[in-house]
Amino acid sequence: MTGFLIAGTSSGVGKTTVTLALIAAFRKRGLIVQPFKGGPDFLDTGHQTLASGRPSRNLDTWMLDHESNRAVFASASQGADAVIVEGMMGLFDGKDGASDAGSSAEIARLLQLPVVLVLDAGKSARSIAAVVLGFELFDPQLNIAGVILNRVASDRHFHMLKAAIHSRCATPLLGWLPREPAIAIAERHLGLQTAEEQSAAHNAQRLDTLAQLAETHLDLDALLTLQCGMQFEAFASTPAPAAQVRIGVARDEAFSFYYEDNFDLLRQAGAEIVPFSPLHDRALPPNLDALYLGGGYPELHADSLSDNHLMLMAIRAFAATGKPIYAECGGMIYLGESLRLKDGRSISFAGLLPLTFAMTQRLVRFGYVTVELLHDCLLGPAGTTFRGHSFHHSDVTSDVDRSTLSKAYRISYSLASKQELEGFGTADRNVLASYIHIHFRTNGNIAANFVEAAITARTNTMVTA
């Protein structure tokens, strides 16, 4: 199967642009493309999903063991003609400076993928050859199969760069992309703007432009000869059983930060995933047994979320039944009392948690985490451990009494030698909320525990009705 990993010399060189251009161009040629993103990223995966028409998946060698990464890769690639993995940061950047653990290079080795290296050539001339040569020599065992230059000023500029690279480097040059404002994706405090924020017409036009640029400037035929060496036959997929519970999932412009594998695992545990919009819907879907509210950008839609009084009432009424509600980051903020925006206004939300939140000027507690459950909760019994990550531009403020809240999590941060207690739960423990984005595959029992909590709550509701 055609397959390769798009890597960069660092963050910000244009990996996402090149990845989306290749997905769009291959689809124009009639190919089915399965995208992946290395690391804990929800924004790039959203754009990849839009471009490919297939859910993008995350690969992560810090959160998941090697076998789980291979299984995710093999399962999602079924039915595809080509697989494209977009790496994270620079090719060799990972957990520490002494190894490639947690890096794009480790993912490429694990999945036997050739690497296509993207460089920002916007301010480069002959020195770009030294950069390419350095990557060639840094790890000669890694298969760097080609180079793509991004933000090239002109055809003349490209030929100068090409001459420099050919004079000193062995890696083939697979083309270039010009500076083109029409294909840029705007950024904000957590990264790229989400795919959901632009109109369908705008997204279609941008993807069409990307595909045309790829056909014009990239050697697509050469890229299509690059092959993934992993044996997919060793990984058999298991069909999901009949659904036993219905889990409502908040999905719209305000809430879109989810690991797609979490949904797969919930389905495997017996759940039907039922999307709803806290922004646009006036009521919850019927016959739900649990709610799952992921992260996103509720701060950008705070007024509309707060003004949707019928949905807020429906969320409160659902909680009052004792059925489980699990929320992460932006979903937790939505369940809180209020959010103070950067303009100083305080916006009221559901009020299920006696917490207020405020937007901050910088990222708060960023990085990978390991979580241990201190007591039984919706995700499992005390002592259960799993992994996730934290990245947010908000924090809990202390002007509301939190004495009625339990804290189910002991969180250990990978980038700092510190721990903290978090994982806020209500007194009756049917609501669990945290800033941590959990990858359910880091502990195979999490999804099953949440489904079981939904089944138990439904049974209790029927008994007391």
TrEMBL record:
<dbReference type="InterPro" id="IPR027417">
    <property type="entry name" value="P-loop_NTPase"/>
</dbReference>
<dbReference type="GO" id="GO:0009236">
    <property type="term" value="P:cobalamin biosynthetic process"/>
</dbReference>
<dbReference type="Pfam" id="PF07685">
    <property type="entry name" value="GATase_3"/>
</dbReference>
<comment type="pathway">
    <text>Cofactor biosynthesis; adenosylcobalamin biosynthesis; cob(II)yrinate a,c-diamide from sirohydrochlorin (anaerobic route): step 10/10.</text>
</comment>
<feature type="domain" description="CobB/CobQ-like glutamine amidotransferase">
    <location>
        <begin position="246"/>
        <end position="442"/>
    </location>
</feature>
<dbReference type="InterPro" id="IPR002586">
    <property type="entry name" value="CobQ/CobB/MinD/ParA_Nub-bd_dom"/>
</dbReference>
<keyword id="KW-0169">Cobalamin biosynthesis</keyword>
<comment type="similarity">
    <text>Belongs to the CobB/CbiA family.</text>
</comment>
<dbReference type="InterPro" id="IPR004484">
    <property type="entry name" value="CbiA/CobB_synth"/>
</dbReference>
<dbReference type="Pfam" id="PF01656">
    <property type="entry name" value="CbiA"/>
</dbReference>
<feature type="site" description="Increases nucleophilicity of active site Cys">
    <location>
        <position position="437"/>
    </location>
</feature>
<keyword id="KW-0436">Ligase</keyword>
<feature type="domain" description="CobQ/CobB/MinD/ParA nucleotide binding">
    <location>
        <begin position="5"/>
        <end position="187"/>
    </location>
</feature>
<dbReference type="InterPro" id="IPR029062">
    <property type="entry name" value="Class_I_gatase-like"/>
</dbReference>
<keyword id="KW-0460">Magnesium</keyword>
<dbReference type="GO" id="GO:0005524">
    <property type="term" value="F:ATP binding"/>
</dbReference>
<keyword id="KW-0547">Nucleotide-binding</keyword>
<protein>
    <recommendedName>
        <fullName>Cobyrinate a,c-diamide synthase</fullName>
        <ecNumber>6.3.5.11</ecNumber>
    </recommendedName>
</protein>
<dbReference type="GO" id="GO:0042242">
    <property type="term" value="F:cobyrinic acid a,c-diamide synthase activity"/>
</dbReference>
<keyword id="KW-0067">ATP-binding</keyword>
<dbReference type="InterPro" id="IPR011698">
    <property type="entry name" value="GATase_3"/>
</dbReference>
<keyword id="KW-0315">Glutamine amidotransferase</keyword>
<feature type="active site" description="Nucleophile">
    <location>
        <position position="329"/>
    </location>
</feature>
<comment type="function">
    <text>Catalyzes the ATP-dependent amidation of the two carboxylate groups at positions a and c of cobyrinate, using either L-glutamine or ammonia as the nitrogen source.</text>
</comment>
